[in-house]
Structure formats: C-alpha cells, structure tokens
Amino acid sequence: GDGCGHTLLAPHSGTLSSRNYPGTYPNHTACRWRLRAPPGTSLLLAFGDVDLEPSEHCAHSSLLLADPDTGTAYGPYCRDAGPAAPLLLTNSSAVTVLFNSTSHRSGRGLLLSYASSQHPGRGEHGSEPLTPHLTVCSSVYCPAGCKDIDGDIWGNPSQGYRDTSVLCKAAVHAGVIADELGGQVTLSREKGITLYESAFANGLHSKRGSLSEKRLIFHKAHRLSLPACGDALDVAAFNASSSWHEVDALGQDRAWAAERAALGSAGHSWAAEPGSEGAWLELDLGTRRNITGIITKGSEPYDYYVTSYRVSSSRDGKNWRPYRGSSGQEDKVFEGNADSYGEVSNAFIPPIVARYIR
Fold first, then answer.
1. Could you report the per-residue pLDDT of 212-247, keeping only the tens digit for each?
2. Is 287 helix (H, G, I), strand (E, B) or coil?
3. Where's the F5/8 type C domain (predicted)?
C-alpha cells in the first residue's frame, strides 16, 4: 500500500514505519503488514512512536493490530488514544498490522518494531532500538532494520560511542550485528572521553562528537564462541591477479605489487594492471583463522581507492566460496572508500573461517 514507509521484515525481528516517517504521513493512504514469527513463539511488539492525528474513535487515522489465531484485536490507536504500554506481548506467532489515513494536518505517523519471544534480553528495555538513550542494562535485543532508523551516532568501534547515540544503529556501525537480521547486543557503559572521532563502517557514517559523561562499548557476541576482534591478523603472503608496473616522470619503474597492499604501508599501494577484468587481491593467512572483518584504505598520495568489492574465501587455495553474509542469497557487495585517506571497516557476520581471502 502507498502508506508504507521503511520496512524490514525478517523471521525473528523487524522494523516498520509509515511513509515519510518522521515527517508527516500522507493523506488517504493505507498499508498492511503481515508479521510472522517461527511456530511455537509469540510476537513481542515495541511501539516506538504512534503519532496519528486524533479523531473520534481514531476514525481519520488509525493503527490496528489483529491476531488471526485468537481473534484478538489491539486498537485502533491514534494520538491521545495510544497503546497503554510501549510493549505488547501477543499470544500468537502471526499478527496483521493495519495503518490507514484520511485527510489530516499533522502527525509523524508510526514506528514499530517486533521480535519473537524466543530471544532473551527483551524485557523492559525491548523498545531500546527505537530510542536515542541507553537505559542501565548490559544486554538488549535489536530488531532488523535499525540502520535506516532516524537519528545520529557519534564515535567508532575502537573508541566506543557517545551515550546519546541511537543504540542499535551504533551496534550495526560497530559490526556486532547484521542489519538484515538484528540480534542480541551485549554492551557496557564506561567513562566518557573528550572527543569521539567519526568513521565510516558497515555502510553507516558516524559523526564527530564532543565530551559525554558516558560512552557505549559493544562486545562481540559470546554465543559465537569467537575471540573479540582486537588485532590485525598476520598475512603470510600476498598474491594478485595482476600488478601495475608504472614508469614515472623520471623514467623509473614503480611496481604496485601485491605485497604493498598491507594496511599501513608507506607510499603507493597495490593496483591491478590497468584495464584488467575481474581483478583480485589474495591474502594467505598461513593457517585457518576466524576472520571477523576487513579494513580498507586508498593510496593516499595518489588519490586512488576502491569504492566497492566482493569477498571470497578458501581453505585450500583451490576451492573458493563467495561471501554472502547473513542472507545467504546473493554475493555480498561491501561498500568501500569514498576518498584515499580514510579507513573503512566492514564486519563479516557470520565470520569467515578460512586460510585464504580474496
């Protein structure tokens, strides 16, 4: 329907909103969402925002939730007749969400998230993904689709995030959850720092922020039984499909060889032969490792950089598997650099277990 805004519906969690949210929703529109959780679970719904222009019995604009299994209905809701509590635990694994509008003048519309009841940590903080402030807790469940929720984040994965950042959006930026799936987030609140540096990571820009009393520190999911990613993995050898051999203005040969691809190398980097198709860079880690992410940077003195890339992995150097991320449907295209000097990080969720990476 034409009343639908940002929507991401995944099996265990999701996020949905009216069109234009948080701007005024349009006149004479309708939208219907069908939410389904796995059999044997119940849906937990978190009302992030229900701001529909009030009218008698919410006749002009309304939000209505229907439980087809039990015949139960919740609502209609609008401004001044909203949900009694920010959380609604249904007794069903399927709920239909109906949004309608007629002529109106004001109202942000609605923002709603859901999770299946099998996920822990969703208690009184279940609405956390939709709000910019963190309550005192060590674990929350973030629904899918937090990447596009309105709001800002300040900081980066290494420093932590200013405590006024949108929590679950920051978790996507930090690479502890995949936006298309959501998931359990473990975090701590530590003493704030003077300045939070901005960064581009996992398709999100964070802002440069000033001093805050507290900061958010995200921890890798313990259920993966993997160590936290704190150090770069050693590369035993670099290989490439080709390398560029340039003759500079002084007539000297400059080799943009594969081994120059190591992050932090002074001077020029690796580059494929100009015009080559399907160029690749290969890293041999010497043995099988758990690989949780990648950081890329351009060749700063020359203003060269890679804007997007795919990743493949191999355990034997012969059989290669494309990385498809958590969706498993298509090869994942990672968003790379927009300049030659900034570092861009992307997380592998789930991690890659391999010796070779291309």
1. 988 999 987 543 333 345 578 999 999 999 999 998
2. strand
3. 221-358
At 167 the three-state DSSP class reads helix
Reference 115, options 189, 38, 202; nearest CA is: 38
Identify which of 100, 104, 89 has the alpha carbon closest to the alpha carbon of residue 32.
100
Residue 247 lies in a domain: yes
DSSP 8-state assignment for residue 210:
E
Q: Which amino acid is at 201?
A: A
Does 244 share its domain with 208?
no
Query: CB atoms < 10 A from the CB of 325, how many?
Result: 21
Domains: count for the chain: 3
Average pLDDT over residues 110-117: 84
Domain range enclosing 44: 4-116
Residue 176 and residue 187: Cα distance in Å, rounded?
10
Radius of gyration of the CA atoms of the chain, in A: 24
Please enumerate in sequence order all residues whose Cβ is within 8 A of that of 244, keeping only pairs 6 or more positions apart, or say none. 255, 256, 271, 272, 273, 274
Single out the residue of 172, 177, 126 nearest to residue 149, CA to CA: 172
Burial (CB < 10 A; 0-12, 13-18, 19+), residue 114, is: buried
Tens-digit pLDDT profile for residues 259-273: 999 998 888 999 999
Q: What is the residue-wise DSSP string for 314-346?
A: ESSSSS-EE--TTT-SSPPPEE--SSSS--EEE
Omega before residue 301 within 30° of 0, cis: no
Has residue 121 been placed in a domain?
no
Structure token pair of residue 196: 């939070």
Please tell me the distance from the alpha carbon of residue 349 to that of residue 331, in angstroms, as a whole number. Answer: 13
Question: Is the pTM of the predicted complex or chain greater than 0.90?
Answer: no
Q: Give the CA distances from residue 170 to residues 178, 242, 297, 298, in Å, rounded to whole numbers and listed in that order.
A: 11, 38, 22, 25
- H-state helical runs in 130-237: 167-174
Q: How far is CA 87 from CA 90, 94, 109, 157, 291, in A?
A: 10, 16, 18, 30, 37
Residues present in the chain in total: 358
CA distance linking residue 109 with residue 63, whole number of Å? 9
CA 290 to chain centre: 21
